[in-house]
From TrEMBL:
Protein name per UniProt: Cupin domain-containing protein
SUPFAM superfamilies: RmlC-like cupins
Species per Swiss-Prot/TrEMBL record: Cyanobium gracile UHCC 0139
Gene3D superfamilies: Jelly Rolls (2.60.120.10)
Amino acid sequence: MAPFRTALSRTVELVPVQRTVHGDALFSAPRPSDETLIAEIARGDAFELFCHRFQTDQLLVLRGAIDLVVLQNRQLRRIPLREDEATWVCIPPGVPHGAINRGRIPALLVNAVLRHGPSDPRDYQPHPVPPRFRSQWRRLAVA
C-alpha cells in the first residue's frame, strides 16, 4: 500500500487507516481535506461513472461494503472496500469511477475532498458506463 502523495498523480492509491483505540471507541487519524462529504450508496450496480476535473476524492467506507470501480489504462479495475477493513482510497482528478453495492444494506462512505481548482457542477453528474465497458462492468458486478 503506497502512502498518500500530495502531488497530483493519475494513480488511485490505497492507504490503510491509522487508528487508535481508547476504551470502546475507535478513532481514525484525520485526512487533509477542503471539504468533507457523506455519501450513501444503495444496493445495485447503476452503470454510472463520475469524473472530477479539479478534486481528489478520498473515500472510506463507514458502514457496509462496496466495490469501487475505476477506469484506468482502458480497463475497469475493481477495488473492494469494507467497513471491517478500513482503507482510504484516493482517486485523483481525471479518473472515472463508480460503485457497485451488492450488500443487503446501503453503504455509508465519507469523502474527504481535496480541491485543486474551482468546483464544477458537471463533476457531480453521473455519466453512463461506455458501451464497450458494460460487459466488463457486469462481470465485476457478479464477481
